[in-house]
Amino acid sequence: MTTLEIVCNAVIPTLGVLLLARAYRVWRPALLRVALVLAWSYAWHFTDRALGIWPHFGLDYSAHTGVAIAIGAALAACGTRWLAVTVTMLVFYAWCMNEVGYHPYADTLTTAAVNLPVAIAVQFVPRRRAVPAS
User: Fold this and answer.
1) Cα dihedral angle (35, 39, 40, 42), rounded to 10 degrees?
2) Is residue 64 classed exposed, middle or buried when 0-12, 13-18 and 19+ CB atoms within 10 A define those classes?
3) Do residues 118 and 34 touch, judged by C-beta distance below 8 A?
4) Which residues contact 98 (CB under 8 A, 6 or more apart)?
5) Is the pTM value of this prediction over 0.90?
6) CA distances from 115 to 26, 59, 105, 134 (A)
7) 68: nearest Cα among 93, 33, 101, 88
8) What gap in Å lies between CA 48 and CA 55, rounded to an integer?
9) Choice among 36-45, 61-70, 77-86 with the minimum mean pLDDT
10) Whole-angstrom Cα distance, residue 72 to residue 102?
């Protein structure tokens, strides 16, 4: 395994560690939202395997990209600084997947296209704030 492959394979675990480190106070709701996006991503993965949607267009659904987006969206919801870190890591991830030949940009972009809207909706939907007792 090349150094670049090792670095590429470390992106998703790094995103996960950052999420857990950041979400320690509110881990339960954050992890529930990640689980919802992961369920969506894997539903697409299994649908694609059953119906051959991506192969029909000469592509391959990237379940790992779906996982990276689920974790990345949760991190991005932690604030502007985390949004910048997440976007940088996801762009780097797409470059890595292309560079080492795991997935071309078309695979990661089309996978992102079906997962990112749901991840954004789940992570950035208005959250209820506790009403102070009077």
Assistant:
1) 130
2) buried
3) no
4) 104, 105, 108
5) no
6) 23, 16, 15, 42
7) 93
8) 8
9) 77-86
10) 20
Q: Name the nearest CA neighbour of 91 among 68, 75, 70.
A: 68
Q: Phi, psi (5° rounding) for residue 68?
A: -60, -40
The model's confidence at residue 17, banded by pLDDT at 50, 70 and 90, is: confident
**Tens digit of each residue's pLDDT (9 = 90 or more) over 34-58:** 888 989 999 999 999 999 999 999 9
pLDDT: which is higher, 54 or 7: 54
CB 100 within 8 A of CB 83: no
